[in-house]
């Protein structure tokens, strides 16, 4: 039987960790939301609701299985759902993907710091990489504690930008419909030509890059109910952040044309002080996500805080610093993220099949025990 007690502080921490994990450079700079949601105009808000429905089930399941199975290595979840052979394929694909997105996030860090502070891109990339490495070396439990606090702060500042957009709409009620009509003509890259599919695809993207992390978070919870609640709360909070950012990007669409970091342009327009705070927040967002992705990559090869772990983490950071400093950020997001989303669809089918089979087995056991009685 599951325990009914829930530690509210732990739920917030684990939900915040999930939000912080997802709010990396792609999200905090506005590029992800722009390409997956805002380019669809006001239908992007409906796409966010599709994301909420799909991702709520997936997070609820992964947090729960992480607590129930308590995998020694979080990548074991792939073999749990897909079997030994296909599970190994997914393990190595996931490791490669998470590391590739780690490099993408470093590129986003360089672009952000360069745009706001005028510091050379490679220096910004290097600073974030070194900070992320230092956090990674502390281990997974300490990382969850750190980024679990950062997550709610990120959402709060995204909310400020969104609320400013909503206030602007009250004065110019036709602004959203005007922006929706013009979006396809402004030259923005789009993840998909169909708004509903974009929402679902983003959910599968979020799934594919966070499977081992969600399993680790679930394992850290006190019980299954606490784990599942944290997964749902984290997904809901992240969806609210998506919707608020869509509104802001639509309202301020003229400002963000041709910009690598749309959120920074919007925040600067609202207030130079907010722009300064937001630039720091984006850097913190990127740092926390980069540290998470690096740790999840290294966890495949060695346990936390071992000599082997430290050496691999340092080598992978150095490689990421080099490539993150020279690759174009927006093109990487447009190519890499949709591919990750498509690959997650097959894994979701395996998840659903396994969960249904487990429930069927539990029901059969209950019937057999009742017959014996």
What does this structure look like?
The protein has 373 residues and is mainly α. It has one domain: Amino acid/polyamine transporter I. It contains 16 helices and no strands. Helix 6 runs antiparallel to helix 14 and helix 14 (272-298) packs across helix 15. The radius of gyration is 21 Å and the shape is globular. 52% of the residues are buried. The mean pLDDT is 89.
Mind sketching the topology for me?
Blueprint lengths: L7 H15 L2 H4 L2 H6 L6 H27 L6 H7 L1 H34 L3 H16 L3 H32 L3 H8 L12 H26 L3 H28 L1 H4 L5 H9 L1 H27 L8 H18 L4 H44 L1
Helix pairs in contact: 1-8, 1-10, 1-11, 4-10, 4-11, 5-6, 6-7, 6-14, 6-15, 6-16, 7-14, 7-15, 8-11, 8-14, 10-11, 10-16, 13-14, 14-15
The proportion of residues forming helix, as a percent range, comes to over 70%
Q: Whole-number radius of gyration? A: 21 Å
Low-confidence stretches: none
Topology, number of strands: 0
Shape category: globular
The name CATH uses for the topology is Amino acid/polyamine transporter I
Number of helices: 16
Q: What is the makeup of the main sheet?
A: none
Strand content: under 5%
Organism: Clostridium thailandense
Protein name: Transporter
Transmembrane segments: 46-65, 90-113, 119-140, 152-175, 195-215, 227-253, 273-297, 309-329, 335-353
Keywords: Membrane, Transmembrane, Transmembrane helix
Index terms:
373 residues, Amino acid/polyamine transporter I, 16 helices, Transporter, transmembrane, membrane
């Amino acid at each position: 039987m599951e325990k009914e007690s829930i530690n509210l502080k732990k739920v917030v921490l684990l939900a915040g960790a999930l939000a912080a994990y997802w709010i990396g450079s792609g999200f905090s700079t506005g590029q992800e939301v722009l390409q997956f949601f805002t380019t669809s105009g006001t239908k992007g808000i409906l796409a966010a609701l599709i994301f909420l429905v799909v991702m709520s089930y997936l997070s609820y399941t992964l947090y729960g299985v992480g607590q129930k199975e308590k995998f020694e290595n979080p990548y074991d979840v792939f073999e749990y759902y897909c079997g030994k052979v296909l599970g190994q394929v997914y393990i190595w694909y996931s490791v490669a993907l998470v590391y590739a997105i780690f490099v993408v996030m470093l590129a986003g860090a360089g672009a952000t710091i360069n745009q706001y502070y005028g510091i050379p891109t490679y220096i910004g990339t290097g600073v974030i990489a070194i900070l992320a490495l230092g956090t990674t070396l502390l281990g997974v439990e300490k990382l969850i504690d750190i980024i679990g606090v950062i997550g709610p702060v990120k959402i709060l500042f995204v909310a400020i930008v969104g609320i400013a957009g909503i206030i602007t709409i009250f004065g110019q009620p036709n602004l959203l419909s005007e922006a929706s009509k013009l979006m396809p003509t402004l030259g923005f890259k789009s993840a998909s030509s169909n708004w509903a599919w974009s929402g679902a695809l983003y959910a599968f993207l979020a799934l594919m890059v966070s499977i081992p992390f969600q399993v680790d978070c679930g394992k850290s919870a006190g019980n299954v109910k606490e784990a599942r609640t944290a997964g749902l709360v984290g997904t809901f909070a992240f969806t609210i952040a998506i919707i608020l950012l869509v509104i802001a990007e639509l309202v301020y669409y003229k400002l963000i044309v041709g910009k690598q970091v749309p959120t920074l342009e919007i925040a600067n327009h609202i207030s130079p002080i907010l722009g300064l705070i937001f630039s720091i927040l984006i850097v913190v967002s990127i740092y926390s996500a980069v540290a998470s992705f690096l740790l999840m990559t290294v966890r495949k090869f060695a346990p936390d805080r071992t000599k082997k772990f430290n050496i691999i983490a340092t080598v992978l950071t150095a490689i990421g610093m080099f490539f993150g400093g020279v690759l174009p950020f927006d093109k990487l997001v447009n190519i890499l993220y949709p591919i990750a989303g498509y690959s997650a669809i097959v894994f979701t089918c395996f998840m659903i099949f396994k969960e249904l089979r487990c429930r069927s087995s539990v029901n059969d056991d209950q019937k057999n025990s009742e017959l014996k009685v």
